[in-house]
Amino acid sequence: RLRQAEATAARDEALVAKMRADTARYTALKERNFVSEEKVNDIRTNEATAAANLRASKAAVEVARLQLSYATIRAPITGIVGARLVFPGSAVKANDVTLAVVNRVRPLLVSFSVPERHLPQIRAVRRDGSLKVDITEPGDASRHFEGAVRFIDNTVDASTGTIQLKAELPNKDEALMPGQFLNVALVLDTLKQAVSVPNNAVQQ
Q1: What is the reported pTM?
Q2: Closest CA to 179 of 131, 109, 126, 117
Q3: Residue 50 — pLDDT band, cuts 50, 70, 90?
Q4: Scanning 113, 116, 143, 179, which has its CA 20 to 30 A from the CA of 97?
């Protein structure tokens, strides 16, 4: 259908070019009194009709191209696609059957909760600037991932007494995956020129 519509548009475009040439030629003949004014008006009407047909043909091409685009399935976001959930021969219905799950990993949102008693300090730090987090993987504290808090929930969970936050990580190397458990340290303050000792040096 698209090729047929494109062929029709090409034909109408050629016809418009011919009609424009005829209009120019008959206009020149009218100036020399070789043709009547009525004949020139007829030629101009034919040119306008051909131009209108060309616009309709181009619109039909766009409709056919749009319909053809429905034959290709595209993900709405950039991410990593999981296992396919349908197979050849399956009945698929638009907006009803899930083909696969696409997870966005760049950037990655990390959800975590903190006790409500820290909420005033969290708000104060965020008001003064960006609220940072330091993230490590369980069992591997050598790798650190830095992010910034992008979301603070508007209510406290009454059952746990905590409030949910979300931090955004660039995750450019895709080292972290959705659903992964992580250790999140919320950075509320930085003590400069402070004396510190390793944890294993502290004895009971």
Answers
A1: 0.58
A2: 109
A3: very high
A4: 179
What's CA 86's distance to the chain center, in Å?
24
How far apart CA 86 and CA 9 sit, in angstroms, is 39
Residue 182 identity (one-letter amino acid): L
188 CB-contact burial (10 Å; exposed 0-12 / middle 13-18 / buried 19+)? middle
End-to-end alpha carbon distance in the chain = 82
Rg of the chain (C-alpha set): 34
Whether the Cβ atoms of residue 43 and residue 24 lie closer than 8 Å to each other: no
Alpha helices in the chain (DSSP H): 2-31, 37-69, 119-128
pLDDT of residue 141: 80
